[in-house]
Structures are given as C-alpha cells and as structure tokens.
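[job 4471] stage=fold_predict status=RUNNING
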Amino acid sequence: MKKLFSALLIVLSFSWSSCLKDYTLREVTYYKPVFKTTAEVRANIKSGEPELLSTPGKLFYKDGYVFLNEVMKGVHVIDVRNPQQPVNKAFIKIPGNVDIAVRGNILYADFYTDLVAIDISDPNNVKLKKTVENVFPENNWYSYADSGKVIADWVRVDTTIREEEYSSWFMKEDRVFANPVTTLSQSGGDGMNGKGGSMARFGLRLDRLYTVSTSTLKVFNTSVPENPVYVSSFNFNNGAVETIFPYGNYLFIGSMTGMYLFDASDKDNPKQLSVFEHARVCDPVVAEGDYAYVTLRSGNECQGFTNQLDVVDVRNVEKPKLVKSYPMFNPHGLAKDGSTLIICEGKEGLKFMDVRSADNIQQIAALKGMTTYDVITLGGYALVSAADGLYIVDYSTPTAPKISSTVKIVKP
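[job 4471] inference complete, writing structure tokens
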C-alpha cells in the first residue's frame, strides 16, 4: 500500500509538471468598446462634472478657457483666467472626438463621422445645437462591429491567456490592445474665433471652419456659428495631410511630404498656390510675417528619420523657398510670439528660440521634465499639452521661462 501511494505521488507530480510545461500564461491588457446607437450617444452629448485627465490631445483657447480634447471621449473645459490656479470646470462627453475649434459660444467637434456644434455659453450645461452628418467618412473605422452603432466608451480589461492562443486571440474585433488614441489654427478676422495649436486639423478663418483629413480639405460656413453648413472640399494627391494653420488670407497645411500654401481670399473656394516639399516626415507648421516655420520629426507613422526645424521664406507665396534647416531632437507642435519661437521637443520638453534672424536662429532657453506635444502662446503665457497633462508656462522673460501651474493626468 505504501509503495502504491508513493507511485501515485510520482505520477501526479509528473502529470502536474507536464501540465506546467504544456503552456505558459501571459498577462494582457486590452480595451473593450461599449457600443450604443448613434441616437443614444448623440442624446448624451452634454457636460458633466469635471473628470481627471487621462489621454490629452488637441487644445484650443477662447476667452480665458482651455478646451482640451480627451482623445476619443470628449473635451475638458479648464478655466485659466488665473494662470497660477487653473480650474478644471467641466467635461463634455463627445465619443469619437479628436479635433475641436471654438467660434463665439459654439464648440465645433468631430463626433466620429459627424460634425457637431455645441453651445458652451454655460460650460456646465452645454447644448447640442446641430449635427452635420457623415462629413468625415474617413472616421468610419468603428463600423467593423455594427454599422448601426458607435463606440460610446472603452473599458479596460486585465486578464491572462495561454501563450499559444495569443496570436489568434488578439485579432478578435471587440478589443484594442492600446488605449484607443491618435498619437495627442490660428483664429483670424472678426474677433469671434478662438486660438488653436499647430497640431490642429480644424482651423478657423473669419466665418469659415476649415478641416483637413489625410487627403481632403473641407469648408464649412459658420457665419451663423450654431448652424455650420458644409460648403465644399478639395482633394489632395498625396493622402498624407496632417495639420492646418490659417494666417492672414492663407491656409498653411502640413503633410508628411510637404507644406501646402492655399489662398483663402475666396472663403468657400481656397486655391492651392504652391507646395514646399521635404522628406517624408511628420510636419506641423506655423507662419507669421515673411516666414513659415515647419517642424519635421521622425516616428512610426511618419516613416522618416529627419528631426529638424525648417525656416521657409513665403514672401513669394507661389514660390516658397528654404532659408535654413536647424537640427532638433524630435519636434512636435510650435508657436510664435514676436521674436520668440517655442517648440515642443517631445521627451526633451520645450525649447525657446530667438528668431529675429531667420538664417541665424539661436536657442535661448529650455524647460525639461515633460513630454510635450503642442503649444499655444498668449502674450507671455504658453499653454502646453503634454503626455502628463496641461502645463501653463510663464515666458514673459523668454530667456528664463518657468512653469506657473499644471493640470496633471492620472494614468489608468
């Protein structure tokens, strides 16, 4: 009997050991979409209590308030009238939102394939005024699941699976293995428009909203702000358009292969004047006076290896020409105020450049300790969108900038 028991222990031990060797468990995290009908989600576009930042994206400024996109979820409304003490006022739920702009008391935002106009007169009680349906068909990536529904939210799920099941398991359509985000315009004219960053795909000029996708420029009439009307579109050949920056009568449009320059004097029919070509890299642009400033950066989606600042002479808008290129670390968004150019350098923080001489730009200061994405200047203060939140930077002395305050994010 004792020998039989010993033999059984040996068999059980061997079997357990064999099971352990048969597979390896792997810990995984994914985000599961929560689907609702379009009507349900649209009816729920409203403001609520302020929420903690999680994945900050594009930013826009109007009348003392920052509107900061929470990628694919909505917009944070932050009161920055006191730069030393910003107040997170409210959160506007807009599933599928990535880009925003503000004209008067109206917030324009993409809601998956639609454009929505939202009255933000009272940030704590916003009202949906109009929906322009199906004007952004390129945002229809979610329809793989159910064309009658949209993704209303994402739920994080932590679990374990067998290693050998991983390759087939992660292909299931109801899960995404990263927080579903995109990687995180100047106003002009009639005093009603707010101010956006250089990474924007929405840009306001006078009473028109211009939007860009990878291959299309669209025009919306916003002369009655709460009633935007789709007007026209222009198709690009290269399919790699990224950003738009209205300035004066012109639209400066950044793409992975170059900077396009459009004349928007005819508001509803902007005409392409020229293109300044460069290597295939990511490309936001700002302009002021005689020059445009283009940051080129490497990155997975950009398929390039160049990291530099290009200064382009645009005095002849039909023949822009390169003045000089300056090496950079990994530049993203940028903004100009007078003779100071502020550049978001990714993990290297912010760089402050003296640009009084286009062919002899000098770095005059730097702020590190944050991974920066985009920036808006407000005459001595800069609003900076970073990986860990919103920073308000005092650059009233450009050679000695300092952080005035922050609104930090909380990682999930």
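[job 4471] summary: The chain is about 10% helix and 45% strand.
[job 4471] exit 0
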